[in-house]
Automatic annotation (TrEMBL):
It comes from Thalassobaculum fulvum. GO terms for molecular function: metal ion binding; sulfuric ester hydrolase activity. The keyword Cell inner membrane does not apply. This is Sulfatase. The keyword Phosphoprotein does not apply.
Length: 519
């Protein structure tokens, strides 16, 4: 096998880390992802470093924590000075090609004021060439649907309306949309990837493809047979308090979120708040979501099957992960927000080029999205820039275990709303104090808010994160210890672009590589 592997980086949007059969989910069906894990390495405790989409993908593609890349919300520009997995792979001879989207707003400095890229948050991360742009509302997919005779409707979301229904259901449902299972966005993008690779037969040089799939991102709807694949009665019950009021009592920030998440953002034209869904409605939504996962799994299977049939599989490093998770009714929330595990725990499967000496290995160590870029860069023979916060997972892929590794995971969430005074009016926060940071290990989770009281969860006694112990005198020393650890983590990961250099040593300029040994 060539020392220069092909790279296939697949992201599945809003995919919960518990939603794989390979990790013991009771009803989800993921045979293709499970088979890939059996050939590679499954990282069971993998976490996003921020949310929503733009910040999460910024961390994944730059290897930087949010406190360093500073993509705070969808629409916050990515500073042009930051390296990405694509810029560094391109520097060593790869041509990173995007199928989908990266949700990175362009740095507005240095571009004309009338540049159309300044009107969208769904720009392309530096270093990627674009094969198929799937920025919403995905016009290429919609044109393809129309050519196949699908009625798109008059509104931008009408393609997701229940098929044959005179009016939308009043809440979560399992009705199929206007298009069939061969016409999903996932199928369309998989077709484009296969067509591209087929056209490259005999072409010189390794490939680097980033296939960024939109599903199982809302709206929660999926064609037959996936819409009825999962029985709602078989889905796990949500982890939540007995009422919205009881849930809101945990923290002022949580109360604010519970009053603003509209169900219509997740289910076609559904009225009301997500926080007020019944157990039956949540079960129906979950069954649909798991059906969406099965549809995505089938398309991953198509892509992997093509690689195998054409002799590419062995020489390809395949990475499958997500940008962030999905609350899916836990704590009466929907989407990706706040501090709960469900929004940040995500899947990670890596099948190295040439295989691994430990196929089917399940790594229990904590890993983070920032680790992906250093891992891929090591695989392609590119240096990892000193500023990057992540650490290569290659030792795990090669059958070993690093002598030092992090004992906790960290994530950040910035809930500022540019152009709105809602945060200031309801929570008394300024734009730059509307943020939180999380330190989570196997025993405790500490949540630090810039302008609000902290939270502390004893995960050994309360894995559902229902009881805040931050003000409990019996936990005072633990809270202080975790606050100190949070500060140490942030200090250790301040920007290191040039901090390893010294120009005043007797022998001239000296450079020391950053220490990534345990943080």
């Amino acid at each position: 096998m060539s020392s220069r592997p092909d790279i296939l980086l697949i992201t599945l949007d809003q995919f919960r880390g518990d939603s794989l059969a390979a990790v013991g989910h009771p009803c989800v069906r993921t045979p293709n992802l499970d088979a890939l894990a059996a050939d590679g390495v499954l990282f069971r405790n993998h976490y996003a470093n921020c949310a929503p989409c733009s910040p999460a993908r910024a961390s994944l593609l730059t290897g930087l924590y949010q406190m360093n890349h500073r993509v705070c919300r969808n629409g916050t520009p990515l500073d042009a000075r930051h390296a990405t997995v694509a810029t560094e792979a391109r520097a060593v001879g790869y041509d990173p090609l995007l199928f989908g989207y990266t949700d990175q707003s362009i740095d507005p400095r240095g571009v004309p004021a009338d540049d159309p890229r300044l009107r969208t948050y769904e720009g392309i991360a530096p270093g990627f060439a674009v094969h198929t742009d799937m920025a919403e509302p995905s016009p290429l997919w919609r044109e393809w649907l129309a050519a196949r005779g699908v009625d798109l409707g008059s509104g931008v979301h009408d393609v997701f309306r229940p098929r044959g229904s005179g009016r939308p259901p009043a809440g979560p449902h399992r009705e199929p949309p206007a298009f069939d299972a061969d016409s999903t966005e996932t199928a369309f993008l998989t077709d484009r990837m296969i067509e591209h690779l087929s056209a490259r037969d005999g072409a010189a040089g390794p490939t680097f493809l980033h296939v960024s799939q939109i599903r199982p991102h809302p709206p929660f709807v999926v064609p037959a047979p996936y819409n009825t694949l999962i029985d709602p009665a078989a889905t796990p019950r949500p982890v939540r308090a007995a009422s919205r009021e009881a849930e809101a009592a945990q923290h002022p920030y949580l109360a604010w979120e519970l009053g603003r998440i509209r169900l219509s953002s997740y289910v076609y034209e559904a009225p009301g708040l997500g926080a007020d869904m019944s157990d039956e409605a949540v079960a129906t939504m979950r069954a649909t979501y798991y059906g969406m996962i099965a549809e995505v799994d089938a398309q991953v299977g198509r892509a992997v099957g093509f690689l195998k049939r054409t002799g590419r599989y062995d020489r390809t490093m395949i990475v499958v992960t997500s940008d962030h998770g999905e609350m899916l009714g836990d704590h009466r929330l929907l989407g990706k927000c706040g501090y709960f595990d469900a929004a940040y725990h995500i899947p990670l499967i890596v099948k190295p080029a040439g295989g691994t000496p430990t196929p089917g290995r399940v790594v229990e160590a904590f890993t983070e999205a920032v680790d992906l870029t250093p891992t891929v860069l090591e695989a392609v023979g590119a240096a990892v820039p000193p500023a990057m916060d992540g650490r290569s997972l290659m030792p795990f892929l090669q059958g070993g275990t690093p002598s030092t590794w992090r004992d906790a995971v960290h994530w950040e969430y910035d809930f500022r709303e540019i152009g709105s005074t809602d945060i200031e009016d309801r929570l008394g926060l300024t734009v730059d104090t509307a943020q939180l940071a999380v330190l989570r290990d196997r025993d405790f989770k500490y949540v630090h808010f810039t302008g609000l009281p902290p939270l502390l969860f004893d995960l050994r006694r309360d894995p559902g994160e229902l009881e805040n112990r931050a003000q409990d005198p019996d936990y005072a020393s633990i809270r202080a210890d975790y606050a100190g650890r949070m500060l140490s983590w942030r200090m250790a990961h301040a920007d290191r672009t040039l901090t390893g250099w010294s120009l005043v040593t007797p022998g001239g300029p000296t450079h020391v590589a950053p220490d990534r040994s345990g943080w």
